Amino acid sequence: MNQTTYIPRLVDNEITRQLSAMGALLIEGPKWCGKTRSSLEFSHSAFYTMDNQELAKILPDEVLRGDTPRLIDEWQLEPVLWDRARRLIDTRELPGQFIFTGSSTPEKEQPVHSGVGRFALVRMHPMSLYESKESDGTISLSTLFEEKTIKMHQSPYSLSHILWALVRGGWPASLSLEKKAAALLAGNYVKLMQKREFPTSRKGAPLDRAKLTLFIRALARVSAQTANLSTIIADVRERAGTLARDTAENYLNGLHNVFFAIDQPAWNVSLRAKVILRQTPKRHLADPSLAAAALSATPEKLRHDFRTLGHLFESLCFRDVSIYAQSMEGELSFYKDSSNFEVDQIINLADGRWAAIEVKLGDDQLDDAAVKLKELLNRVDTRHIGAPAFLAILYAGQYAYTREDGVHVIPITCLRP
Fold first, then answer.
1. What domains are there in the chain, each with its CATH number?
2. Could you tell me the strand order of the sheet in which 119-123 lies?
3. What residues have CB less than 8 Å from 369, skipping those under 6 apart?
4. Are 52 and 61 in contact (CB under 8 A)?
5. 314: which of 15, 53, 128, 325 is 20 to 30 A away, CA to CA?
6. What is the C-alpha separation between 324 and 317, in angstroms, rounded?
């Protein structure tokens, strides 16, 4: 089904592995992140639900007929396809029958079978810097779980390039465009979400597009920060006067439903100190470029606003490390306790190994970050969870090395899975 030159994605290995074992695969993620294009690389036939929704509704069995694996794109528009596919999987008793893609979850009023035992779920993100060829991949995240030191290395990418990559985003369609054109994609994405793509209220309440715009900007302002819904509501009320809590909940749920907003969960870990873990998640948009676009933040503006740049850079690192950890069958969270002590990223692998990462912009912040990482070991019960495989600082600088205290310093433009 190859139609254009395909840019390999890290999720490809997961797709191959799951298709060999399961009857069907569901690939979820935000629009434009490459779900359909990657699925076509593994499919032998395809049906695009958006192009012929009426046919899918009237003749779902015919829609599912075709060479396998058969791609069913944007299946959630006609949820009946899910249950019909499940029955075919049971009848055929063969792996790799279908690839379903979805850029939103179906309405709760349209229940479907869970798909347990038939469907595997794969989450897809916009491209990481390694996938877009903007990380040289010298430092392997998986290797860091095995080795104690890394060799000195200089990244070929400067802060200027990171700023451009952040504002442009990890959208596959942007890579072949001229800079001015590529810079428009994220802004148009945000505008479409505000004007057309946001799901209307399931309760039938009218949608206030102006307040939704303010709500998205408020979310962008708390990128990479722990912010409860009340904090976001207060930001909108400063600018709009009123915003009911149930309306705000509808906005937040809707943005999660279309994978526009994403939460970084808090780490649930055994503690040594007498403190309580915070559970409020860190807020991110699906790609840092969306937050930059919502805030009208250009590379030039970010150079003069280090606070905003710091948060958006952390979101970029969250996107990339999430993708890398997923390819290693790991999970990414963060640590924050009741004393407001925080560590930006915690990677947990399925075999119990873990690592801690702090995200910083420049060299002048490295010493403080290293002290914080060491302090974390005094707060968690390493007798119960074991010592970390490594401690590292991800930053926007150019030199990778291991400090004398054992903490790795890694440019984000050097990292790969």
1. 12-123 (3.40.50.300), 139-416 (no CATH)
2. 45-48, 70-73, 98-102, 24-28, 119-123
3. 358, 360, 393, 407
4. no
5. 15
6. 10
CA atoms of 230 and 236, how far apart (whole Å): 10
- The pLDDT tens digits of the residues spanning 54-78 come to 999 999 999 999 999 999 999 999 9
Q: How many Cβ atoms sit within 10 Å of the Cβ of residue 2?
A: 8
Amino acid at 39: S
The residue length of the chain stands at 417
Q: How far, in Å, are 331, 372, 391 from residue 377 at the CA level?
A: 20, 9, 10
**Position of tokens 């969870």?**
385
Residue 84: closest CA among 67, 65, 101:
65
- Cβ-Cβ contacts under 8 Å for 192 (sequence gap 6 or more): none
Cα dist from 66 to 45, 46, 63, 102, 212, whole Å: 6, 8, 8, 20, 41
Is the Cβ–Cβ distance between 98 and 64 less than 8 Å? yes
Q: What are phi and psi of 239, to 5 degrees?
A: -105, -25
Q: What is the crossing angle of helices 12-19 and 306-327, to 10°? A: 30
* pLDDT tens string 5-38: 899 999 999 999 999 999 999 999 999 999 999 9
Q: What is d(CA 141, CA 390) in angstroms, rounded to the nearest whole number?
A: 10
**pLDDT at residue 346, rounded to an integer:** 98
pLDDT of 114 reads 56
**What's residue 111's pLDDT?**
47
> What's the CA angle centered on 245, arms 242 and 251, to 5 degrees?
95
Secondary-structure breakdown of the chain: helix, strand, coil percentages, each rounded to the nearest 5: 40, 20, 40
Positions in the chain short of pLDDT 50: 1-2, 109, 111
**Tokens linked to 97:** 């029958």
> How far is it, in rounded angstroms, from Cα 112 to Cα 101?
15
Beta bridge partners of 24: 98, 119
Question: Is residue 258 within 8 Å of 193, Cβ to Cβ?
Answer: yes
Residues 6+ apart with CB under 8 A from 393: 357, 358, 359, 360, 366, 369, 370, 373, 407, 408, 409, 410
